[in-house]
Design brief:
Immunoglobulin-like, 4-stranded antiparallel sheet, 6-stranded mixed sheet, 423 residues, alpha+beta
C-alpha cells in the first residue's frame, strides 16, 4: 500500500500530490470493501445438540470491534474431519442494528425454540445444521461469500481432525487457529463450547481458547436478550415428550412412538413409525381388507365387505357355501359341485360347455374317434387344427382311376372302329 506522503513518480510536488492522495484513498477503500465490516469477529459459542437432539443447534458470534454489524455477504460453513465436504449453515443476507464491541449475533436452528427459557429470539435461523458425522471432528469457519477472507476458524476433535487450521491475521497474530479443540462438539448435554477470552481478544489456539460452559449454556442475541438452555420445553403438552424423541407430544405425529425425523410418507398426519398403512393416506390400520383397499365398499348391501364377500354382487348375508368352493350358494349355479360354478347346457352333471368343437351346443365333443380337432366324421384324413395343415393325400390317388377309365374307353372305341372298317 502507498504511504501517506507517496508521490507519483515523474511529477513535481505541486502537480503530483493531489493525484497521489486520490490514489491512496482508492487503495485504502479497497480492503474495507473486500473485508466489509464484520472482519473483527469471534465464533464465541457453539452448541451442536441439546440433550442428544442434534437438530437443536446454536452458533453465537461476538464483535471484537465497533461497527461489525454489517454482516450481509458473510456465511458460516462447516467441513468434515479432513476439512472437506463443506456444508453452508447460513449465507447471511442482512445486517443487524447493534454494532458495538462485545455485541452478539445469534444463529440457531428452529428446534432450539423447544429448549430455551424464555423462548429464543434469534437474529438468524440456520438453513442447515452441522451433520452428525461432523460432530466428532471437523471445522467451522466464518468467512465472506467468496471465501477469500476467512475471519475466524474453530476446529475440534484433537488428532482426529487433520484438515487446515489457518485463518485471517485480523483475528490471530500468526493466522494459525490450531491445534484444534481436543474433544467433540457438545451435543448430549445442556452445555456449549465457549470462547474463554474477552470480547476484544484475538485467537491463540482453539485448544487453549475453548472450554465447555460449567452450567447450562446461555445464548445472547444482538439486542442483548438472553436465553438459557433447558430440557425440552412443552408448555402445551402436560406429558411433555413421553416417547423421548425430542418432539413435544402436542406436535409429535407419533406421540407414543419415537420418531425424531417425523417421517410421514403418505402425508396423512400420522408418522410412519405409528402408521399401519404408511403408503395409504386413507388408513392408519390395515383393517379387514388390508392397506390400499377401501374397507367401506359393500356393493350388494348385505353388510359383508366386498373384499371378503363370497358373492360380492349378490346379497347373501349368511355367506353359505355348501360345496366350499369359495363361491356362495347365492351365486353358485352348482352349489353341490365344488368343480363347477357356472353350469353349461348339460347342467351340473356335465362339464362346462367350454368345448370349441361342440357345433350343436349339446355339451358333447363332435370329434370322431381319431380326436382331430375339426374332424366331424371320424376320418383321420380330415383337417386337424392340432396337427397344423391338412394331411397330404397320396400322389395320384384320385387321378389314376380316371386315367384308367379313359384308356379302357378309348381302347373299346378303337376296336369297334377297326371292326366297322373291316366289314
Amino acid at each position: 500500500m502507498l504511504a501517506a506522503n507517496t508521490w507519483i513518480r515523474g511529477s513535481s510536488r505541486g502537480k503530483g500530490f493531489r493525484p497521489a492522495v486520490a490514489a491512496l484513498a482508492i487503495l485504502l477503500a479497497m480492503p474495507l470493501t473486500a473485508q466489509a465490516s464484520y472482519h473483527f469477529m469471534q465464533i464465541e459459542q457453539v452448541i451442536a445438540g441439546i440433550d442428544g437432539d442434534t437438530q437443536a443447534q446454536a452458533i453465537q458470534l461476538r464483535m471484537r470491534s465497533n461497527s461489525q454489524n454489517f454482516v450481509s455477504g458473510s456465511r458460516l460453513i462447516v467441513r468434515d474431519a479432513a476439512g472437506e465436504n463443506p456444508v453452508v449453515l447460513l449465507d447471511v443476507a442482512s445486517d443487524l442494528p447493534a454494532g458495538t464491541v462485545g455485541q452478539r449475533i445469534l444463529l440457531v436452528s428452529e428446534k432450539v425454540a423447544s429448549y430455551t427459557s424464555p423462548a429464543v429470539a434469534p437474529d438468524f435461523v440456520l438453513a442447515n445444521v452441522i451433520p452428525e458425522a461432523y460432530l466428532a471432528a471437523g471445522t467451522l469457519t466464518f468467512e465472506n461469500d467468496d471465501g477469500t477472507l476467512l475471519v475466524w476458524r474453530l476446529s475440534w476433535g484433537g488428532a482426529a481432525y487433520d484438515g487446515p487450521t489457518g485463518g485471517a491475521l485480523t483475528n490471530d497474530d500468526n493466522g494459525e487457529f490450531g491445534p484444534p479443540h481436543a474433544d467433540a462438539l457438545p451435543s448430549t448435554t445442556l452445555h456449549g463450547l465457549l470462547f474463554q477470552g474477552s470480547a476484544d481478544a484475538k485467537s491463540s489456539t482453539n485448544l487453549a481458547d475453548y472450554s465447555l460452559t460449567p452450567a447450562a449454556a446461555v445464548l445472547t442475541n444482538n439486542a442483548g436478550q438472553t436465553f438459557t438452555i433447558t430440557e425440552l420445553q412443552c408448555p402445551n403438552d402436560p406429558d411433555a415428550d413421553i416417547d423421548d424423541d425430542h418432539v413435544c407430544g402436542d406436535v409429535d405425529n407419533c406421540p407414543d412412538a419415537a420418531n425424531a425425523d417425523q417421517a410421514d410418507t403418505d402425508d396423512d398426519g400420522f408418522g410412519d413409525a405409528c402408521d399401519g398403512c404408511p403408503n395409504d393416506s386413507a388408513k392408519t390400520e390395515p383393517g379387514v381388507c388390508g392397506c390400499g383397499l377401501d374397507d367401506e365398499d359393500d356393493d350388494d348391501a348385505d353388510d359383508i365387505l366386498d373384499c371378503i364377500d363370497n358373492c360380492p354382487g349378490l346379497s347373501n348375508a349368511d355367506q353359505s357355501d355348501s360345496d366350499e368352493d369359495g363361491a356362495g350358494d347365492a351365486c353358485d349355479e352348482c352349489p353341490d359341485d365344488p368343480e363347477i360354478v357356472n353350469a353349461g347346457p348339460g347342467g351340473c352333471d356335465a362339464p362346462p360347455d367350454d368345448n370349441a368343437n361342440d357345433n350343436d351346443s349339446d355339451n358333447t365333443n363332435d370329434n370322431g374317434a381319431d380326436g382331430n380337432a375339426n374332424d366331424n366324421d371320424g376320418s383321420p384324413s380330415d383337417d386337424d387344427d392340432a396337427g397344423g395343415a391338412p394331411a397330404p393325400r397320396a400322389c395320384g390317388a384320385a387321378v389314376v382311376p380316371v386315367l384308367l377309365g379313359i384308356l379302357l374307353l378309348s381302347s373299346a372305341c378303337l376296336s369297334r372302329t377297326r371292326g366297322s372298317m373291316a366289314a
